[in-house]
């Protein structure tokens, strides 16, 4: 049978897909070729704009996880944390695109960026805020149940609190790995001096690698080992 594919949704676009996804607007958010001073601006914008979208989703999942914990349903927060963690993983994976951006080409396009910095990312700031809220909500829940974070690992692996704690720990580890990769990109593509060099942005990036939103949950050996190189350059070890 022939289906009628005529658009029925309100909005701009020739099809309902275009109208729902707002593809005309989405694909018009990048600088046009006539505006570019280097063709790799498209690569740079696509990576960063898609990062903002994944971070927006991650922050939304974290916000809902906080609400579920506050409502006394922590077992419902675990799958939300898993989705937020996958968002961070995808953000990390797409940094591989910068392996196809040479330092020379990045320097050529840098004037187009003005004084912009990844530290100004609204998506990341939202993730930071909601992660802190999650930590507070979880600590309050443990206090209500008269539990100590160090005892969570002794709970039955199928226990809702144990699973939530593991999901929170995995989220922390994924964020740390993202920071490690960001650090490496800053050194290779951005041309920043190594961590420990006075005034180098890489120094702050490397220090942040060791940061955890939920330090009371501890770290696995893998998470501790992952940022070893950046930290060594800061501490001199």
Concise structural overview:
By secondary structure, the protein is an all-alpha fold.
Write the layout of secondary structure elements.
Layout: H1 16-21, H2 23-26, H3 41-70, H4 78-93, H5 103-109, H6 122-144, H7 160-188, H8 201-209, H9 221-225, H10 228-235
Helix pairs in contact: 3-4, 3-6, 4-7, 7-8, 8-10
Structure explained in plain terms:
- This protein is flat.
- With 237 residues, it is an all-alpha fold.
- The protein has 10 helices and no strands.
- The N and C termini lie far apart (70 Å).
- The model is unreliable at 219-237 (pLDDT under 50).
What's the total count of β strands? 0
Q: Rg, please?
A: 21 Å
**What is the distance, rounded to the nearest whole angstrom, between the alpha carbons of the first and last residues?**
70 Å
Strand content: under 5%
Give the biggest sheet.
none
On the 0 to 100 scale, the average pLDDT is 85
Features:
single chain; 237 residues; mainly alpha; 0% strand; flat; disordered C terminus
């Amino acid at each position: 049978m022939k289906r009628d594919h005529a658009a029925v949704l309100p909005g701009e676009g020739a099809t309902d897909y275009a109208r729902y996804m707002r593809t005309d607007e989405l694909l018009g958010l990048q600088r046009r070729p006539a505006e570019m001073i280097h063709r790799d601006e498209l690569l740079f914008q696509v990576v960063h704009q898609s990062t903002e979208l994944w971070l927006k989703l991650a922050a939304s999942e974290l916000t809902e996880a906080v609400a579920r914990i506050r409502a006394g349903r922590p077992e419902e927060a675990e799958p939300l944390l898993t989705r937020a963690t996958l968002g961070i993983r995808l953000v990390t994976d797409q940094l591989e695109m910068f392996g196809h951006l040479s330092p020379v080409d990045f320097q050529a396009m840098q004037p187009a960026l003005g004084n912009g910095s990844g530290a100004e990312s609204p998506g990341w700031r939202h993730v930071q805020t909601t992660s802190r809220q999650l930590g507070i909500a979880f600590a309050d829940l443990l206090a209500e149940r008269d539990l100590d974070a160090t005892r969570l690992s002794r709970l039955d692996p199928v226990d809702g609190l144990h699973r939530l704690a593991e999901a929170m720990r995995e989220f922390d580890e994924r964020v740390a790995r993202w920071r490690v990769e960001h650090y490496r990109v800053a050194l290779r593509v951005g041309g920043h001096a190594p961590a420990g060099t006075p005034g180098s942005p890489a120094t702050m990036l490397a220090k942040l690698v060791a940061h955890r939103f939920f330090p009371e949950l501890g770290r696995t050996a893998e998470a501790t080992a992952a940022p070893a190189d950046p930290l060594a350059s800061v501490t001199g070890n």
